[in-house]
Every structure is written in structure tokens, then in C-alpha cells.
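Hi support team,

I'm opening this ticket because the web form for multi-chain structure prediction keeps timing out on my end. I have pasted the exact lines I submitted so you can reproduce it. The total is 886 residues across two entries, so I didn't expect it to be a heavy job. Is there a limit I'm missing, or should I split the entries? Thanks in advance, R.K.
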Amino acid sequence: MSVPSPSVAPVLDRRGFIKIGALAGGGLLVGTYFRFGAASALAETAPAAVASFAPNAFISIAANGTVTLIAPNSEMGQGAKTALPMIIAEELDVPWDKVTISQGDLNPAYGRQAAVGSGSTPGNYGPLRQAGATARAMLVEAAAQTWGVPAAECTTENGAVLHRASGRHLGYGELAAKAATLPVPADVALKDPNDFKLLGTRVPGVDNEKIVTGQALFGIDQTLPGMVYAAYVKCPVFGGKVASANVDEVKKLPGVRDAFVLDGINGLTPGVAVVAGSTWLAFTAAQKLKIQWDQGPGVSQGSEAMAKQAEAFGQADPGAAVPAGATAIEAAYHYPFLAHATLEPQNCTALFKNGVMEMWCPTQVPSAGQRSVTQGLGLAARDVVVHVTRLGGGFGRRGSNEFSLEVAAIAKRLEGTPVKLTWMREHDFAHDNYRSNGWHFFRAGLDSAGKVVALHDSFVKMQGGPGDMTGGGFPFNAVPGSQVQSNKLSGTIPTGYWRAPGDNGNTWATQSFVDELAHAAGRDPIDFTLGLLAAVPGAGAPGGPAGARGGRGGGGFVPAKMEAVLKLAAEKAGWGKKLPRGQGQGFAITHTNNAYVAVVADVTVSQQGVLRIQKLTAVVDAGLIVNLSSAEAQVQGAMLDGISAAWFQKITIEAGAAAQVNYDDYPLLRIDNAPPAVEVNFVKSIAPPTGLGEPGLPPAAPAICNAIFAATGKRIRTLPIADQDLKWA
Amino acid sequence: MSSFNLNVNGAVHAVDLDDNTPLLWALRDTLGLVGTKYGCGIGECGACTVLLDGEAVKSCGLSLKKVGSAKVTTIEGLARGGKLTAVQQAWCKLDVPQCGYCQGGQILCATALLAAKPRPTDADIDSAMSGNFCRCASYTRIRQAIHAAAGQPTAAS
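Hello R.K., no limit was hit. The queue was backed up. Here is the completed structure from your submission:
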């Protein structure tokens, strides 16, 4: 397996997109198997020669046997650039160490190129198996015709077709020219997942060698001849605009090439652009800007006022009617805004020339970046060419693409000159689409037997963006008559998708409150949860496989699957040990992106209040595991990401702006606080895979908080944990 | 503006830049060595780590004036003659990188650690590596990879 070096010279040729079709040596190119709606402008420029080959765009096989597979979705660390081509290679029956992987640029032929919602693997699993199997069937047919034998007598192995009866075999490269002349079969047989050889194994990331040798991969690494460097300064107060700026003064600074105000562009946050001979010169010049802001009404917003508004909503809500004889339990939980804080700050590179905007975008959703540019600058989609780079972290941040429009607006003014825009870290924190804050005012009733007989959640968050509570999820579905009331804070703080949207905060709150109820009922928390799961409608039925419903979201909750992962986690973690004060175990569960996850945490808290996480034990049912190495890494990383946020992080709003400006006041988990033991177990399954980038995150924080309670008797109801006093005596 | 002769990865490069230019930006934008990453600009994240005479240092706050004639090793200069070091090999084999953005800095920091302590304990690792964030939290595998590479020669030692 090898990965081609990214081309350095810009192509600036619309046909560059589909040049892969014009393979040297008469190779086979199997074009797209599914086409999207009205073909875009780009698809219209495809030469006829390609279309005639074509049921899918993911595979090319050259006459010399070189197999190139396309990774259609962006790589941000979740492993899509390795896992998706693995799915093709499995059905195609090519040896992994012989294939070349190419990152797909924006191209409608690749289907839905959105690396969001843990959707890359479940969304592509079926189509990419089909793509591989279709190509394999055509190669088999080509061999069968060559030998004059029935196709059914031929098998494939390691990139060759075999006819065992006669001992003949032909490599895929030798068959490429003939296969390319054959009709594309409409329906082909897929492998039995029990026969998979590659899927489920540990395959290291395809870019690893480039990463460990520092080669240019990321958006911020793009370098074009004659390139200039830009910074873009926006009003720290959300919704603010530029009233005036000393651009003429800044233009005269050494190394500065231009400085100008951008405003009145559809979709663009107004600001001041500075263009210079290096990133450093652009940053230092940007710091010398004197900008008069028209801050607008957003300046009156603050976290304290939001908390008061949320409290008022909570108090106005009567909560659950607790039946006579039952004990009422109430608790209020709060989590703050979070930044994404991708280690690679937002950036983008663009060149506007001959009416075409060519762009190099570290984006999770390249089509959204393209759309922002077409809408903002009045360009046709065919004239906005988007190359997809590797992303230095995504976590949902790069689903929005402000940087694309910003750099395009700058590049359009500097026609003919390539521009790289890099956000200063301070701007990255100031202009995020934050994980929304949230409040849960819970009220429950426990009867004398410790059964939950009433459950009500009055939920409040910033308006807009994802993260709403729905009433149908666990544990609400276990309590007849339960209710979730949602209210929104007025305000203009931009919120957006942050790893495991909704669940990243709401699962912490609900799983902590269920733990409270278990302790109030005097029950073992896992037994208590198993009791609740047994009360969910449909409990006891085996249900479908975890991923059977495919796609994203949390539909189709199967209580038996949740129960199975929880029981296994309890067993693996040695749940129920009698522990001295200062040591504790806690657990939490989630059903996120169709995966079932249970996490048990072992913590210690010193009398002085120093928290150490000793061990995390996860059990995950995510359907079939495509790449065991990245699947395990995603669950490890997602759990620690959840802990990092819950332990240390908050964005507070003061006078309409984010108060935290860099990592010194928004710390990430460091290695010395990472648990020494992190164990990830997968339930063996051949069900279609669910996503896995997010599901490990939601249960980690409540597992830790519940373990802290077990160790100290202190219940964490406000995040981050670092703001709470954990001392005990 | 001043002239500097930067000794980077075994070659001397003459550059004309402002005295206060951080080494990070001279490497990235002037010499085209983009393996050294910008993360925070305040020495908090470690993405910009390079080796200065074998010591792991953060290059975002290190002005060219202060670099002087010290030997700078960037992530591009670690492998010699196309052969990955034991640390780089362990990183690949154990599939440490997730997004990969911090990993150049992590590898250089681990290289300096192993040069000083060929058989580090977990506590040594935590202490030496705690200046380098991994936003993907690949810490479990970072520890494993350092142990895997321990006791083997490091190119920068």
C-alpha cells in the first residue's frame, strides 16, 4: 500500500478532477455506481471516455496491475482514509500492501462527502462493498471470457482471477483492458462477512509514514509558488462589524502587501484582512490593527445572565407530579460552552485565476465550503474547485467552513496570487461554533421499592445549533409518563456540532442523575440501570443487529444490546469490588450513532482532592469492526476527549465575547493526567458497522463523575470538574 | 532585518529575517519545512517542538537571535538516508497518529527523552511528554510506542 504525494503545482484545470479516468496504459476505470441528483457542473465536464467505463469512481486498475482506491471522505484522525478503501479492497480481493490510496477531492461522483455524525463508515459501507464487488465481478467475467470457461468456475485471490480446474490465473492488471469493455452488471453478489479477510484486522493509517517524517499533508502545510499569507480579524463580540480600521497605516508595515476591510459579502463575517510575506508578518501586522468595532447588541450577553435566565426557566417548570407515597428527588446539572480547539487552527488556501477559484480546504464537508464560496462571491459551482487536505482534528469544527469563504474573498481581490489564510489561535478560540451550554433541572419520584415512578427534565440551552433533548431516549423511555421540557436562551452565541452533539453533555447529565437515583434507592447502580433497561418497551427482544438500521442518529434502541455491553463491562472491570474511601468505580452507558457503549471508570481522589483516573474499561457494540486499530484508537481517544472537556474546559461569555483565548486558559488533558490503563472491548458482530468517531465520548465523563461520587460522596453537578472542590475528610 | 545562518537538519541556510522572527515561522514559511506545526504561539501545546542541540524546545517562542549557531533538528531531519528511527518506526507500527498534527512534536520530544533515558518508566514518560498536547488524546499509544522504541538507538542521540 502506498499513498501518492500531494501534487505541489496547482492544476487549475477543471478536468484535473477526473483525470484519474485517463489512465496510462488502457487501465480500467470503474466510474461511480451511484450518481447524485442533477449532475453538477464538474460532472458535466467529464470526458465521454470516462463515462463509458463507468459504474463507479472509487477504483482504478492500471494495465501494470497498480490498483488505486479513492478515500471519498475527509481524514481528520477518525481513520476514514484507511477504513473506507479497506472496504473496497475486501470485496475487490486485492492485497492491501499493493494498493495506492488517494484522497478524494470534492466530486459528486463520490457520493455524500461529509465526515460528520460518525457517518463515514456506515454511510459508505454498502456503496463501497458494491463498488469493489462490481469491479471484481467484471474482472472475473473478463477472465472467464478469455479462457472460455463459465464465470462461476472462477475465483479471485490477491489481485488475480483463478481457474482452479485448469490451474490458470490472470492478474487484475492483465484483465483491465478487457474488463473495461464489458457492461457493468447491475447486481453482484457480495461476500459473506464471515469470509472477510482484511476487515476486522489491525491496519495502520495510510499516512503514518508521512506524518512521522513531517511531510506536507495538512491544510496549513499547503505551499504554492508565489503564495502570500493572510490573517483575518473579526469583531470579538459576536455579531459585531468593522466601523473603521487603520488599514492605510498597517499597509505600510514591512512585509505587508495589503490590508482591507471585507464587508457586505453574503455569509461572511465582516473583518479586516492583512496580507503579508509570511504568516508571522501577517500575524504581527494584524496585532497592530486599530479597529473601531460596531459591537452591536451582542455585547450585552454574558454567561452569568444566561445562568439566571436558565434558572428562571427551571423554576417556572412545575416538573413531574410525584405520586403519593413516592419520594421526590431533584437535581440541577449544568455544562458550559466548549470550544473545539482543533490543534491545527482553521486555515484555507486559495488561488483565483481565469475565473476559477481553486481551493485547498481542511474541511469535513467540502461541498459546504464550495457552497459558501459560490453564494458569497457569485461564482458558479463549476468554477470553485475544492481539494481536500488532511485535517489536524475535526471534532465537528470543520463541518462549518467560514475559512473557505474568507480566503476566497481575499484571493478574489488578489487575482492571480495564491493566498493561505491562517487563523491565529486567539481568533480560533474567539470565533468557534461552540458546543452549546446546557442546564437540566431533573425531578423524579422513587416509590418505596426503589422504582422510578416519575421522571421529568426541564432542559435549557442556547438557541440554534444541535444538542436538543428528545424525550424518547434512555432513561426516559423506561419511565411511563416521563417528560422532557425544552427551553432556549435568547442570544447570538454561535453554536455548532461538537463530537457527539447533544449526547456529549446530555448523557453526562442523565447518566449522573440515574446514578443519583440508584444511590437514593439504595441499589447497586448497575443493577438499578439493568432494571430500568428491562422496563424499556421492547426489552427482552433480541432486536436487530446494532447497525441494521444504518445511517446516523440514535434510532432503533435495542435494550438487550445495551444490557449486554453493560454486563460485559461490569465483568471486565471487576465491578462491585469493596473499595476504601478515596477509591471509586462508576459507570455510564450511551446509545450514540447507533453504537452501544458502556464505560466503567476506576478513580482515586486524595483527601486533598487530587483526582487520578486509574482505569477505563469500555465495551462497545458497533456492529462489524472495519479497522480494529483505528476503531480501538477512536474509542480510547473519544473517552479521553470527553474526560478532557469535563475535567478542565469551559468557554465563558463576558461582554458578548469568549473569555478564553488560548490553551493556557482552556487546557487540554495532558499525558500525565491520562489514565495508565485504557481497555477497549468490541462485541463480535457481522452486522453493518455503525460509526465510531463519537460513541466512546458521551459515557466517559459521567462514568468519572459517578466514580468520584463513589470515592468521595461528592456529586459533580456542574462542569468542569476542575472548578469543583473534591477534598474529603 | 538581519542575516542568519541557520543550521537545520545538517545543512546551513542563510536567511534574511527580522531578529524577532520565531524559529517556527522561519522553518515553515522561509525554509518550507512544514513538519513543525503552529498550534498556540505561546509555548503551551508543543506542536512546534524541535531539537536544539538534541534538547526538545518549543520553536514558536524562540527568536532566530536566540537560535544562534545551535543545531536544529526538525521532524523532517530525524530519519537519515530514508531510514526511520526506532521511535518513528514504533509510531507507525503501533498506529499512534490519529489526526497526526501533534505527532512530529511528540516524536521529537520522545527522541530527546530516550537519548537521556534509554529505558524510561511511565512516570519518566509522563514527565517528559506533558508539554505536548494531543488533541485526539492518543496518549495510551504514545506511552506504548516509547516503550517499544526504548533501548534502541535514537538518531539524534
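A quick check on our side: The radius of gyration of chain A is 27 Å. Let us know if the file doesn't open in your viewer.
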